[in-house]
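User: Hey, quick favor. My workstation is busy. Could you predict this chain's structure for me?
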Amino acid sequence: MTSALIAALSTACALWLWTGPDFAVTRLSKLTTVQQKPQWRSLAERLTRPNPSRRAEAWRRASIELCQSLSAELSAGRTPGEALTKAITAVDFPDPQLLRPVIAAARDGGDVAAALTSAAPPQGGEGLRQLAACWEVGTAVGAGMTSLVDRVAGTLRLAEAHRQDVSAQLAGPRTTAKMLAVLPALGLLMAGALNMHPLNFLFGSLPGFICLIAGVTLDACGLWWTSRMATQAQP
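Assistant: No problem, here it is.
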């Protein structure tokens, strides 16, 4: 009975490692967000909490739409402030509250570049920061704002296409690594089903315990190394 319970727990842990969140993305999210005091949250809030990688992707798509809409408004003959205000209101951002200072700066003639830089999130805000640099150059030098915004939009589209291509190519190695991490637990289940009592050897003898520690360590190192290589390969 004890062997079956331990085998079931080992399988559950292996399945969690297989289908659980990406450790690199989780750690990066913790490092780039402001630490707050722990609060009790309901189960529904935990289940509906947005994924940091998906949120960053939504910000990148919204930035591309913003540049395209801004270029269209500028081509229609609107002033840069009016064009930016209408473009922001026409785009569905993940957090529209962050863009309110930008709208206020565009309407009142404030520092739009600084407002865009402040509103850009740490993850996924590359488009807003590039648009801020474009705005600063256009207002300081007097260059054509429409052509600058078009170049930024084209750069963002190419970067997003490259990012999606890399993510699609990395999906296979990540899935293979997680499947290989689950195989030892499946081997224990198969050995237990054949009445070979593998847990008695692993937990009941010194050589077995050494094998268990070595196997878990190598398994964890393999997952960490695969995640590290995939994170470094991403743009």
